[in-house]
Design brief:
Elements (H helix, E strand, L loop, with lengths): L13 E5 L4 E4 L9 E5 L9 E2 L3 H4 L17 E5 L4 E5 L4 H5 L15 E5 L2 E5 L4 E6 L2 E3 L3 E5 L4 E6 L2 E3 L5 E3 L4 E6 L2 E3 L8 H5 L11 E5 L4 E6 L2 E3 L3 E5 L4 E6 L2 E3 L4 E6 L3 E6 L2 E3 L3 E6 L10 E4 L2 E4 L3 E2 L21 E2 L4 E4 L11 E3 L2 E4 L23 E4 L2 E4 L6 E2 L8 E4 L2 E4 L9 E4 L8 E3 L2 H5 L2 H6 L12 E2 L45
């Protein structure tokens, strides 16, 4: 995979190019690289280098956010197609230093071990590749460790360690019958890279954006299980019209954007028993048109913890970024939500999910939204509402738990959920901006009991006779450090029965993702 000459130190593979800025370039040329990616060695935490797409960003003096100029984000590399050489600058950024990091230990690239590699593939499965079993190998140091071309099918991959570039695993249209079992993908995105670096302005960090596994177009019959996605930008992306997807028993740690991003045009999807720990967002819906089989997305028994802040906006003294990227403390550290939404105008006739028995934890959401289980799309299917049952929802800050629910138009049903705000004496609303119908007046509620005593609760009985959250409660589920609720606590009982035929339906009475655990 990687260029071996940069791995050992000291080496003589770099020459000074601009001493005033600490920029070096490779002695050798690297024809046909098509782009460049890299990671530091273990002595520097294996952090990923910035893959600059413009030399003007690598060489920039400016490190603050700008809408139109260039920004140096920190240690990184650039491949120049004109002379086919690699340019490198390892100067610590001010953002990095502020956050307490000094990576690398030595800013001279001749003294710093790195794994640098081009924008290619390690293994490509061609159109007629089929019935292949690969197990127990390491695939490292190309942009795509695995590429599945259209038509490849029935390929089983187990216990494989992957380090790639922007998209380590690329699954193209029509691929089917693929199983990933026990795959480990390391992204090592540096914590000093801000979301705004990748998504705002001139996007100098654009090359970070990409999922560990990208499922494109109408690929189908894909199972991802027992895998670990660690410090990637996104985890799994299926943003088009894929179907027959099963994503279960995986671990997502430190995901900087979306754990799973799921297209509204997808059908027959089950996402269950995953642990998404200290991620920015858990599972996000992405507008890609109407699903051919609405109501067949099942999200259940997942742990989604979004309580750890991440860098949303870099230093912005001119206040060019939206205020939300500065965070409540003004340091750029922000929180997102367990269930999010993208491409708001592309959801076709609607996108109902079945969300049940999840444990979701989050903080002061930067977009001022709620948990994300609310159905706020304009269009919906009257025979397939969004249904949300028996979840544990915990807010760790002074922020609401749900916002903009429509309680009386048939778009959504909620019941049996536990809501809890761990902060004492909260001042913000519990439920914010709820409506009976799309254009009716808004109402805020300071507690679940206030909602249940309102006309909104009575109105909801017109299409859900018990009333929304009739069995829901506001209480501390008393989770332990592994997210198990107390055996004598409120989450041990009270779950409402799930509709017949839903996956994961076990008939037990506990709420949340995990059954009560004895101390």
């Amino acid at each position: 995979g990687c260029y071996k000459e940069f791995r050992s130190t000291p080496n003589a593979q770099w020459e000074v190019y601009d001493s005033s800025k600490g920029i070096y370039r490779s002695v050798k040329t690297y024809p046909n690289a098509e782009g460049i990616h890299g990671y530091f060695g273990s002595e520097n935490g294996n952090y990923r280098l910035v893959s600059y797409e413009r030399y003007s960003d690598l060489s920039a003096d400016n490190e603050n956010y700008t809408d139109i100029g260039n920004i140096y984000l920190g240690p990184g590399i650039f491949w120049d197609s004109s002379d086919e050489k690699i340019y490198i600058r390892l100067k610590h950024s001010e953002q990095e230093i502020i956050m307490g990091y000094t990576i690398p230990l030595d800013t001279n690239p001749c003294s710093t071990s790195m794994h640098i590699f081009p924008n290619h593939e390690v293994i490509t499965f061609q159109e007629k590749s089929s019935y292949i079993h690969i197990e127990g190998i390491n695939l490292r140091y190309q942009n795509n460790a695995l590429e599945f071309k259209s038509g490849s099918n029935h390929i089983f991959l187990k216990n494989i360690d992957i380090i790639g570039g922007r998209t380590p695993v690329l699954i193209r249209n029509g691929v089917h019958g693929i199983v990933f079992d026990g795959i480990h993908v390391s992204g090592n995105v540096p914590p000093w890279i801000a979301w705004s670096d990748v998504k705002c302005g001139t996007e100098p960090g654009h090359a970070f954006q990409g999922p560990a596994i990208s499922i494109q177009d109408s690929a189908y019959d894909i199972e991802i299980k027992n895998c670990t996605f660690e410090d990637t930008w996104d985890g799994i992306g299926a943003v088009d019209t894929s179907y027959d997807l099963h994503i279960h028993n995986n671990i997502f740690k430190g995901t900087r954007d979306d754990g799973v991003q799921l297209g509204s045009g997808c059908s027959d999807v089950e996402i269950n028993h995953n642990r998404m720990i200290f991620v920015s967002k858990g599972i996000s819906r992405h507008g890609s048109g109407s699903p051919p089989k609405p109501g067949t997305k099942y999200i259940h028994h997942n742990i989604i913890d979004c309580s750890k802040p991440m860098l949303g906006g870099r230093r912005d003294p001119d206040r060019l970024l939206s205020k939300k990227y500065r965070g409540p403390n003004g340091d750029g550290m922000v929180w997102a939500r367990p269930l999010a939404k993208h491409e708001a105008n592309r959801f076709g006739k609607g996108d109902p999910w079945k969300i049940y028995h999840n444990t979701m934890v989050f903080g002061k959401e930067l977009n001022n939204k709620g948990t994300g289980h609310e159905y706020i799309l304009k269009y919906f299917y009257r025979d397939q509402p969004q249904e949300v049952y028996n979840n544990i929802i915990i807010q760790t800050m002074d922020h609401w738990l749900a916002r903009e629910c429509r309680v009386a138009d048939g778009s959504q049903i909620y019941d049996g959920n536990i809501y809890y705000r761990s902060i004492n004496n909260p001042k913000t609303y519990f439920f914010k901006s709820h409506r009976e119908r799309k254009k009716s007046s808004k109402k805020h509620f300071m507690s679940l009991s206030e909602f249940k005593s309102s006309k909104f609760f009575k109105s909801s009985k017109k299409y859900y006779p018990p009333g929304l959250e009739n069995s829901g409660i506001e209480a501390d589920p008393r989770l332990d450090e592994n997210y198990y609720p107390a055996p004598n606590g409120p989450a041990a009982t009270g779950a409402v029965p799930l509709p017949y035929g839903w996956p994961g339906r076990d008939g037990k009475k506990y709420r949340g993702a995990l059954p009560p655990q004895q101390p």
